[in-house]
Write a structure and sequence with these properties.
With about 400 residues, the protein is mainly beta. It has a 16-stranded antiparallel beta barrel with strand order 1-2-3-4-5-6-7-8-9-10-11-12-13-14-15-16. A hairpin with a 6-residue loop joins strand 1 and strand 2.
């Protein structure tokens, strides 16, 4: 039965309306998180709005967190050792998020989810063609979560567009980066898990190789353990079996506004009984003027996700899609923006079925402070969620 808006949900929307009215009278100014402090420039150089990356910010990250056209003033300490590049000031930034949330399926009315996340981030160039990046979760949903993204990077090897990442990252990063989304609603097409399988497109340990051609073609290959960020066992081994997971992607720019890509993954897992899983599917992005559209479709097949002695005769089939539209009325200089999103998952395991529609409106209060209002309708279960939130980095 469809649930009506409760008094708690009305309260959320009243608070959000007051917040939006107040924010409308403010101006944006320049911010100074870690990389902005290093180069003494605004966060808007790379983000629009934070944390969404512009093309310039994407190039900056792919270049080992170095701006090719800008020298960082006195970045390394003069030690007299020609073989030592020592960062003068260790780059540190903090990201903090908080929400006021109503979710009808919980029957708990309004929840003060603040703080929701607090991250300590650091990254930068350690020497020519070698960089690092990591963040530590001080606080995630009430717990100390530890390290998620953490890798070293060899960039522009052999004076080419060849980059190698080694460490912890999300398998889906070459597609659409979950950490850089603007919405509270996630990208579940990358995170759902089938049966007892550990394989999914979220965090894992391994390496990633990327290469870009002048034709606008990008090639990416990944090899990971395939069991997420599990703790090391008594033998100090992180992988829980002898198999690895292999993934690859090819993408092509078509003109100035359109990009298409194709992704595939194959993995095997298990110590006794085994499961083989693979993904395949296309993705696309279109950006013209104030509008950006991101599309993702993935099929998944599992041979034996419950590791049964008698393997099923047929593969377990799952599929999912993401449609995300972003509207920036003044382009990268927009103080207001809007996001519409549709998430869909359908599986032979019906508990995985997921369909939501989300609408999100945000305001850039400062270049590193963003407020938003978001509403999500769960089509599958006829439930409602309303969120008022802030995201800041400093």
């Amino acid at each position: 039965m469809r649930k009506k808006l409760s008094l708690g949900m009305v309260a959320v929307w009243l608070v959000s309306s007051m917040a939006i009215f107040f924010l409308q009278e403010t101006e944006t100014s320049k911010a100074i998180p870690a990389f902005a402090r290093k180069y003494r420039m605004s966060c808007t150089t790379c983000h629009a709005p934070y944390p969404k990356l512009k093309a310039y910010g994407d190039d900056f990250a792919g270049n080992g967190f170095v701006l090719e056209d800008e020298e960082a003033p006195r970045y390394f300490v003069e030690t007299g050792d020609e073989k030592l590049d020592l960062i003068r000031e260790f780059p540190i930034a903090v990201r903090m998020e908080g929400f006021l949330k109503y979710q009808s399926e919980t029957n708990k009315d309004v929840d003060f989810s603040t703080p929701y996340n607090i991250k300590l981030l650091s990254g930068g160039s350690l020497t020519d063609h070698f960089a690092y990046y990591f963040y530590f979760y001080f606080y995630e949903r009430g717990e100390v979560a530890g390290v998620e993204d953490a890798y070293v990077m060899f960039n522009n090897l052999f004076n080419s567009e060849l980059d190698i990442y080694f460490g912890q990252f999300q398998i889906s990063d070459p597609l659409f980066k979950r950490e850089l989304r603007l919405t509270y609603e996630d990208y579940p097409v990358y995170t759902f898990m089938v049966g007892e399988s550990d394989i999914r497109l979220a965090y894992d340990r391994g390496f990633m190789i990327t290469y870009g051609f002048e034709t606008g073609t990008d090639l990416i290959a990944e090899v990971v353990n395939g069991n997420g960020l599990e703790e090391a066992d008594e033998d100090r081994v992180f992988d829980n079996d002898k198999y690895k997971v292999f993934a690859g992607r090819i993408s092509q720019d078509i003109g100035e506004y359109f990009r298409i890509g194709a992704f595939g993954l194959w993995g095997k897992e298990g110590m006794g009984e085994t499961n083989e899983a693979y993904y395949f599917g296309p993705d696309a992005s279109f950006a013209y003027g104030p509008v950006e559209l991101n599309l993702q479709y993935l099929e998944r097949r599992d041979s034996n996700p419950f590791f049964a002695v008698d393997e099923p005769d047929d593969n377990i089939e799952s599929r999912g899609a993401l449609i995300e539209g972003i509207y920036l009325p003044d382009g990268e200089f927009s103080e207001w923006y809007a996001v519409g999103m549709f998430n869909w998952i359908e599986s032979d395991f019906r508990d995985l079925n997921y369909r939501t529609l989300s609408g999100h409106v945000g305001h850039v209060f400062r270049s590193n402070i963003r407020f938003f209002v978001e509403y999500t309708y769960d089509i599958e279960h006829e439930e409602n969620r309303a969120v008022v939130g802030f995201v800041t980095a400093f």
